[in-house]
């Protein structure tokens, strides 16, 4: 199995030294030692959930032309509705970087308290995000990174490399005892760094058990693209033992092509964590045996973090007195054994 240090994806919470100092300086005669989290430098769940000053949060994301992106937008709005002290301003979803830049400029002119931004293009939105930060508006960068650390107060990401590692590790567990196992891969858009990261993680994990990808095609994260690419792959590979498809939305087309070809000799792993994929896994009536989560809750997490930052609060499970500046979410494997745990947060393809 791939060792944890090999992934290089650890989030470290600093601040224990500061907490110890606060405890020492705060002790007086008769102190019972029952300080609250706030008194020792941390935040409590109760503190964070309590209604505070109203914060105006601007939210902008790409057009919801993909099940995962639709879930991103919906979950952000739903999360904001849970808090009476959040005034959420939602810009229309767009895949036009110039339009999204103008949306952020409007948020800056409106002097919102924080901006949650899933950029259609991280590099293209970097400059305007820096402008927001320089105007004193904290930016929460979601999913697609800016090209400068000065462009955001917090960056929250799914783990694309980790997705590949998780998929490869699962396949190693299932077919790794066969040194001649034929492994296939259906990627997303090859020009995107996220696709490159997923493929690199997959290759690294397979190498750990002596396997490699024998057949690979790239699709385009659409149903039609998934079906076309899979038909091409299956024609070129008469025998497959394991297949990883990077994306459950394009996976609808992938599975359609597999059914049309009458192929069922292999196991398939999906990616992202759609509801329909999880239901197939639960049924046991498909070649799809697992999927790897790429959380569609990232923007909802961004809304929560924006609220905490704007209200000068911290994360309740950390000793650190401020919200971290970078958070990378986990990429767990969903199988028939744990699918019920993940179904409630799955998105509709």
From TrEMBL:
GO cellular component annotations of the record: cell envelope
PROSITE patterns: PROKAR_LIPOPROTEIN (PS51257)
Gene3D superfamilies, per the entry: 3.40.50.2300
Ranges for domain Periplasmic binding protein: 57-313
Record family assignment: Belongs to the bacterial solute-binding protein 2 family.
Name of a matching Pfam family: Peripla_BP_4
Keywords: Signal
Protein name: Sugar ABC transporter substrate-binding protein
UniProt keyword Ribosomal protein, yes or no: no
Sample GO molecular function, one term: carbohydrate binding
Signal peptide region: 1-29
Subcellular location: Cell envelope
InterPro entries for this protein: Peripla_BP_I, SBP_2_dom
Location (main, coarse): other
């Amino acid at each position: 199995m791939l060792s944890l240090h090999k992934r290089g994806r650890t989030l470290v919470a600093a601040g224990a030294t500061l907490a110890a100092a606060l405890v020492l300086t705060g002790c007086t005669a008769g102190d019972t030692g029952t300080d609250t989290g706030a008194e020792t430098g941390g935040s409590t769940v109760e503190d964070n959930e309590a209604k505070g000053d109203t914060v105006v949060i601007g939210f902008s994301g790409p057009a919801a032309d993909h099940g995962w992106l639709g879930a991103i937008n919906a979950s952000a709005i739903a999360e904001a509705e849970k808090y009476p002290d959040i005034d959420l301003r939602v810009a229309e979803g767009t895949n036009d970087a110039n339009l999204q830049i103008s949306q952020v400029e409007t948020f800056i002119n409106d002097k919102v308290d924080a901006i949650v931004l899933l950029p259609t293009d991280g590099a293209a939105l970097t400059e305007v995000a820096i402008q927001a930060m320089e105007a004193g508006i904290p930016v929460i960068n979601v999913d697609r990174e800016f090209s400068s650390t000065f462009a955001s107060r917090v960056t929250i990401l799914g783990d694309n490399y980790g997705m590949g590692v998780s998929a490869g590790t699962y396949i190693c567990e299932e077919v790794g005892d066969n040194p001649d196992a034929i492994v296939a891969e259906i990627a997303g858009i090859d020009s995107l760094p996220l696709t490159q990261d997923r493929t690199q993680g997959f290759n690294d994990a397979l190498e750990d058990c002596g396997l490699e990808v024998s057949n690979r095609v790239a699709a385009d994260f659409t149903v039609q693209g998934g079906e076309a690419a899979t038909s091409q792959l299956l024609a070129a590979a008469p025998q497959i033992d394991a297949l990883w498809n990077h994306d459950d939305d394009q996976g609808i087309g992938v599975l359609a092509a597999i059914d049309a070809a009458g192929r069922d000799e292999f196991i398939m792993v999906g990616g992202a964590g759609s509801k329909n994929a999880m239901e197939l896994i639960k049924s046991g009536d498909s070649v799809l045996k697992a999927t790897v989560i790429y959380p569609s809750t990232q923007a909802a997490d961004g809304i929560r973090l924006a609220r905490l930052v704007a209200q000068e609060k911290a994360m309740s499970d950390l000793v650190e007195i401020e919200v971290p500046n970078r958070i990378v979410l986990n990429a767990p494997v969903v199988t028939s054994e744990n699918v019920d745990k993940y179904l409630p947060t799955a998105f509709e393809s």
